[in-house]
Amino acid sequence: MSATPIIEAVGLHTHLGSSHILHGVSLTVGRGEAVCLLGRNGMGKTTTLRTILGLVSPSRGEVRINGQPMTAAPPHRIARQGIALVPEGRGVFPNLTVRENLVMAARPGVDGRRVWTYERVLETFPRLAERRNNFGNQLSGGEQQMITIGRALMTNPDLIILDEATEGLAPLIRKEIWAVIRTIREAGIATLLVDKNVKDLLALCDRALVMVKGRIVLDGATAGLAPDDDALARHLGL
Ligand SMILES: Nc1ncnc2c1ncn2[C@@H]1O[C@H](COP(=O)(O)OP(=O)(O)OP(=O)(O)O)[C@@H](O)[C@H]1O
């Protein structure tokens, strides 16, 4: 196993319009590591992800992916480094079947492996297996979110980034999605998760980062953090 982190962000400053949103954000995600990024609304979590993924350019700071400089690189180059994004909202094609939605995303991983096949994704999401011949527009919100995660898996990634993947989903579906994240983690794929369900995230992740007003104020193992931890509660307004 290589010690080079998959993602290394160093001192990122990002402006959106005339607003200075990120104030020197540094973070790493190592191989196989599950990391969550926590923070109240508007603290800069999505902006951090977008800066790392090349969707916005930082005014200062550096992004390295697998040790290579990738600051503001085009998003498809970053994707080719084995990084898959599951965005907030769905993006499922309404006129394609579940099978077509999944298969169109298939591609080998960075090292050429093709371990995540259509069949394996259906085994991971029995609910999608039942619906495999349905069209995208016949699916519930939770099923659509499962497709977006399934599509990310079909790219045989080293890291999956999930931004609010369980937003607006029923508790039962949310539980199913967390179970899949656990499976993904056990398969050795790193995850970077942003979500509002702090308790669930602490139970799922190895490490937690907490953002306040564009800065990372806490970075530590989740093993030492309880959901009612004082510092955590203060920063998250729990
Ligand atoms: N296009 C924009 N121009 C100016 N400010 C923006 C723009 N987009 C977002 N912001 C501001 O940037 C700040 C950080 O937003 P960001 O979406 O990164 O926060 P977040 O922590 O992901 O919050 P949320 O959980 O609400 O998505 C917010 O205060 C937001 O109002």
TrEMBL record:
Keywords per UniProt: Amino-acid transport, ATP-binding, Nucleotide-binding, Transport
The keyword ATP-binding is assigned to this record: yes
One Gene Ontology molecular-function label: branched-chain amino acid transmembrane transporter activity
One Pfam family recorded for the sequence: ABC_tran
Domain ABC transporter positions: 7-238
GO biological process, one term: L-amino acid transport
Family matches, as PROSITE patterns: ABC_TRANSPORTER_1 (PS00211), ABC_TRANSPORTER_2 (PS50893)
Superkingdom: Bacteria
Family to which the UniProt record says this protein belongs: Belongs to the ABC transporter superfamily.
Name under which the protein is recorded: High-affinity branched-chain amino acid transport ATP-binding protein LivF
Organism in which the protein naturally occurs: Rhodoplanes serenus
Taxon lineage: Bacteria, Pseudomonadati, Pseudomonadota, Alphaproteobacteria, Hyphomicrobiales
Encoding gene (name): livF_11
